[in-house]
Amino acid sequence: MLRSVGKGGLLLLVCMASAAYAEPGLDGAKLVQEKVCLGCHQIEAARVGPPFKAIAERYKDASDEIVTYLGQAIQKGGRGRWGVIPMPAQPRVNDEQAEAIALWIRSLN
């Protein structure tokens, strides 16, 4: 498929994709689909990882700093917070995307 696009077309696609994520107001719900978060998490039911609503419930009374904490947990991964299965780091999620996802998770409460 890349051959049909050509070098110039591929560069244009990369620039367009970067511009889409650079805009303010990223949609966390859309990002969890695009970043394949739903491969391990669901909104209401446990899968490999905890459901997003359980995460929102756990941190419902936390200060706004929890958004930064959750964003870092998304990017860097972790273990032991929700059981024995570790969450792998998500290096393809940038800071803005991680914050948008964390804000969306928090909004589920």
Describe the structure.
There is one protein chain. The protein is mostly helical. The chain has a single domain (26-107), classed as Cytochrome c-like domain (Cytochrome Bc1 Complex, Chain D, domain 2, Orthogonal Bundle). 54% of the residues lie in helices and 0% in strands. The protein is built from 5 helices and no strands. The chain has helices spanning 2-22, 28-34, 52-58, 66-76, 95-107. Helix 2 (28-34) crosses helix 5 and helix 4 packs across helix 5. The longest helix has 21 residues, at 2-22. The radius of gyration is 16 Å and the shape is globular. The N and C termini lie far apart (42 Å). Mean pLDDT is 84; it is low at 1-23.
CATH class: Mainly Alpha
CATH architecture call: Orthogonal Bundle
Distance between the termini: 42 Å
Low-confidence stretches: 1-23
List keywords for this structure.
mainly alpha; Cytochrome Bc1 Complex, Chain D, domain 2; 5 helices; 109 residues
Describe how the helices and strands are arranged.
Layout: H1 2-22, H2 28-34, H3 52-58, H4 66-76, H5 95-107
Write a brief structural summary.
The chain is mainly alpha-helical. 54% of the residues lie in helices and 0% in strands. The protein has one domain (26-107): Cytochrome Bc1 Complex, Chain D, domain 2.
